[in-house]
Amino acid sequence: MNKRRITKKINVGQVEVGGNAPITVQSMTKTDTRDIPSTVKQIHQLEEAGCEIIRSAVPDIEAAQALAKIKKQIRIPLVADIHFHYQLAMESLKSGVDCLRLNPGNIRDRNQVETVVREAKIRQVPIRIGVNFGSLPPVGGIGKTRGKSRHTDGVNLLPKGNSDGSGEFSTVDHMVETGLWEIGILEDLDFDLIKISLKAFDIETTVESYRRMAELIPYPLHLGITESGTTKSGSIRSAIGIGTLLYEGIGDTIRVSLSDDPREEVFSGFEILKSLELRKEGAVLIACPSCGRADVDVVTLANNVDKMMRKVKAPIKVAVMGCEVNGPGEAKDADVGIAAGVGRAIIFRKGKKARVVEESDMLNALMEEVRKVEEEMIS
Question: Can you tell me the distance from the alpha carbon of 342 to that of 226, in angstroms, rounded to the nearest whole number?
């Protein structure tokens, strides 16, 4: 794995992003922001799941004003997601948000952007420039407030990636140039509390855009695959796209965008980071896929363990194995492991045999040992 690209460090509320700070996991609320109790409740659930930065949609002034009351009731930094109307960014700043997300495809008036940046500079609130394939400005129309409609903007006619070396202007070129246009506005105003994202559903376009931008700017990058899908398909697509970039040392904060409970985004995000050993928080599960040699219902056991381990905060490696082929070896290598046999199983702790339990007691016995190890790590 490549050494991580070191970027300028900024603060989103109390959370550091960039530099040598840990790569953070973000999510976005799926409630109506104007429904303050529901939004606060969902953010509390996300905090419990480990979410470190939360973003909320701001469709109107009422939502922007609601952010003030929401922020007072949560612990993690709050980002206002702004599109189309710069006044919503101004009102969100008055509400005390910790960061703004501006879309350069939807707010293309330089004077409006400058107005927001000046106020953000006074308040020392960072801005994420959120470039998104689905809302790019018309081809040839970056920074222009009038011109072609979204239906005839020419974006969908551009080739998606640029890895063929043909030199043809591509979606990657358009995404990067859109981001650089707004970065230029911020830099002209001596504002450098900047994060960048360049998201698309297409993995190649996303990866190539981030690679290109990483060579051009010193600012932290927010990684994501936009509209990636449901939990299963979206987590896989995101793991490939985000994981590729992280393996190359690119990225400072991530969001896995899923059509599901936002807590699933957080769980998937941490799994990506833990798989690359970029974060150590939480348990890691090694589980036998099961086959005809399995002597117990490994699938049910592993899934039950996985659900229960989501509450474990210590960096524990847990192995659930179903037969004698790889079971003892993997179980002994984990902090806690179980190697199942006919009607019973051996539980290992730190490579040593801890006890033998009946099949009916496997889950409870395994989690007892996990909790013991967690307590030892915390104490």
Answer: 46
Distances in whole angstroms, Cα of residue 57 to Cα of each of 40, 47, 65, 107 = 13, 18, 12, 15
β-bridge partners, 199 = 132
Q: What DSSP letter does each residue of 74-101 carry, written as one string? A: -SS-EEEEE-S-HHHHHHHHHTT-SEEE
d(CA 213, CA 138): 20
The alpha-helical segments, DSSP class H, found in 200-354 are 203-216, 231-247, 262-275, 298-309, 327-333
What b/e readout covers 30-56, taking b as 16+ CB neighbours within 10 angstroms?
bbebbebeebbebbeebeebbbbbbbb
Provide the pairing of β-strand 78-82 with 53-57: parallel
Q: What is the structure's pLDDT at 130?
A: 96
> What pLDDT, in 10s, does the model give residues 137-169?
888 888 787 665 656 677 887 887 765 566 788
Cα–Cα distance between 247 and 238 in angstroms, integer? 13
> Residues with Cβ < 8 Å from 309, sequence gap 6 or more?
282, 283, 285, 316, 318, 370
Please name each of the domains of the chain with its CATH number: 10-275 (3.20.20.20), 284-378 (3.30.413.10)
- Strand order across the beta sheet in which 194-199 lies: 194-199, 127-132, 99-102, 78-82, 53-57, 24-28, 253-255, 222-223
Regions in the chain scoring below 70 on pLDDT: 146-152, 162-166, 324-328, 331
Q: What pTM value is reported for the model?
A: 0.90
How many other C-beta atoms can be found within 10 angstroms of the C-beta atom of residue 136? 26
DSSP label of 194: E
Contact status, residue 220 vs residue 9, Cβ threshold 8 Å = yes
Are the C-beta atoms of 88 and 118 separated by less than 8 Å?
A: no
CA distance 23 to 250: 10
The whole-number pLDDT of residue 107 equals 92
Torsion-angle region of 165 (φ positive above 0: left; ψ -120 to 50: alpha; else: beta): left
Query: Mean pLDDT over all residues of the chain?
Result: 91
What's the pLDDT score for residue 186?
Answer: 98
What residues pair up with 317 in beta bridges, in sequence order? 284
